[in-house]
Write a structure and sequence with these properties.
2 copies of one chain form a homodimer.
Chain A: H1 21-25, E1 45-47, E2 50-52, H2 54-71, E3 78-82, H3 86-97, E4 102-108, H4 112-129, E5 134-137, H5 151-169, E6 174-176, H6 181-193, H7 197-200, E7 206-207, E8 217-219, H8 227-236, H9 254-267, H10 271-286, E9 293-294, E10 301-302, H11 308-312
Helix pairs in contact in A: 2-3, 2-8, 3-8, 6-9, 6-10
């Protein structure tokens, strides 16, 4: 059974934002005193100074997703990456509501009980919406993250590769991921802090596909929506998702960056949106100057002779 | 009389870093237990894991400044902007130590007693090093910051313009300013947060001059040196500087950004350096695509028909 909470004064600046998000931040509170700007119902959220009731918040949320779909003329089958977490659940559900042609898949990363719990939640979500979930197992490629020195790096490489491969082999024009505004901003800052501009590339809501490299287009439908808004969407729609955090991510440096960004956003709403706009424009100005090749082993795109995935896979 | 302090465990992550920096952060402490890596003397600073005594810290500092001078082949007269504050004092003194041809100047911004105190400190510094300080008075152009709605914006425009004009009219090839690593990183983040990429341009240690636009080259000799290191340099060399903060800057949003950046740097030394490298590379990739014109009123460079300075000046 999913319990539904009335949410009020949900604060962006709460510490440890991404750790145990659910327990710390979602409070059962008496109804808000504010009214929705668009009807007489009670407001559940304040976005850039405007109050929204549940229904109008969902409309706002879907409007932000639709703005990405429309801007880039998304039309065709979309492979939707589900992680079992709140963001990909919100992403999948919103695309479903917009009546797009979807093919949901889940990559089982073999991380102890975490991966099993997440897979179960993703399956439940798919069942509830009438989809069959496709499962990809990272162990089939001989990768065991528990044995890796840099599990997050290996996991990232594997996920990027397997998402594209799944979409390509299943005749999808696009892969959609649940990266939200909070992720986009955090990711960019983290890359600056590591002087890693290579990773900064592609940090925008839509990346074109390249048929000759078997590269499917990538979309981030939640690009304009904050962590908090995704959470609220998930709650209002009573979607199943895993509350668990990946055990490898708990000490990630990005957590401190995300906390600070939300603290600043709390003081001056709109700075995250401005940062995402800045990074998107920067990314467009830079363009992709790195030369693409075709991996000699697998035939997919690579920046060197053998792609990163073929280097990390054991079989 | 200048009092000299032995500094130890000077902490980057102290809150309110830029406000009352002096009082909060410089402590009279018993001598450090660590030895300098390069001699037997007591260490006063730890930089990226290495300990430095006073003498070797000064050598390190001058080495960082020299790296900028050498990389860009700086050779010719440099107009040095003095604000009376610690950074421009450190910048001027280090360029003097490197035996460059310098012409120091001060822009009196007419900000109550603050401008008078700063001018006095800049004059004392120049006298102690055997230079005559040139004074530019913003009031001569009919600008009174106290009357302005956005004094910081008007001040920025006026300073940029008058620095270049002074250098150009006095046959200098360069203008040097005291922007340090902390400033560079803070400035870039603040521009991202305001979606102001126009200002992001030029955020690098050296910007070429353009004779046809009467634009003198700009250098930031302290580009690789943190707030804290500039402060230590000023103390070791017993330089005069104004401790006062500009009354307009006290509530500036950049203060929070700077505090956070130093907090993160304290946890993971090197991230500020990485960010500055990232921003410099980004800036180079973007290049300057904005078209320059010649201002119809004053004949200096402008992005529109009339330059910003001619728009704000009253006479």
């Amino acid at each position: 059974m999913v319990i539904f909470f009335v949410i009020r004064d949900f604060d962006d600046s709460t510490p440890n934002f991404s750790q145990n998000f659910f327990k710390r931040n979602l409070l059962i509170l008496p109804a808000s005193k504010m009214k929705c700007e668009y009807c007489e119902k009670e407001a559940v959220e304040n976005i850039y100074g405007r109050y929204y009731c549940e229904n109008h918040f969902v409309k706002y949320f879907l409007g932000r997703v639709r703005s990405i779909i429309d801007k880039f003329g998304i039309n065709g089958r979309i492979a939707v990456a589900l992680s079992g977490g709140k963001d990909s659940s919100a992403c999948f559900h919103s695309l479903h509501k917009l009546k797009l042609d979807l093919l949901p898949f889940y990559i089982n990363l073999g991380i102890e009980s975490y991966s099993e719990i997440c897979q179960k939640k993703a399956e439940e979500l798919c069942n509830s919406l009438g989809y069959r979930l496709h499962i990809i197992d990272i162990n089939e490629y001989g990768i065991n993250l528990a044995d890796e020195k840099k599990p997050c790096s290996v996991c990232g490489t594997a996920k990027r590769y397997l998402m594209n491969k799944f979409a390509y082999e299943n005749n999808c024009k696009y892969v959609a991921t649940g990266h939200n505004l909070s992720d986009v901003v955090t990711f960019a800052l983290n890359n600056f802090m590591n002087a890693n501009l290579m990773n900064f590339r592609g940090n925008r809501p839509y990346l074109e596909g390249k048929e000759e490299y078997k590269m499917v287009a990538k979309i981030k439908p939640l690009y304009w929506l904050k962590d908090k808004e995704c959470m609220l969407y998930v709650y209002i729609n009573r979607l199943r998702y895993a509350e668990e955090e990946c055990p490898h991510a708990i000490s990630a440096p990005t957590i401190q960056i995300k906390e600070w960004i939300h603290e600043m956003e709390g003081k001056k709403p709109g700075i995250m949106l401005n940062m995402a706009k800045s990074f998107w424009r920067l990314e467009e100005m830079i363009g992709s100057k790195a030369k693409l090749n075709i991996c000699r082993k697998c035939g997919y795109a690579s920046y060197s002779k053998i792609c990163k995935f073929c280097k990390i896979r054991k079989r």
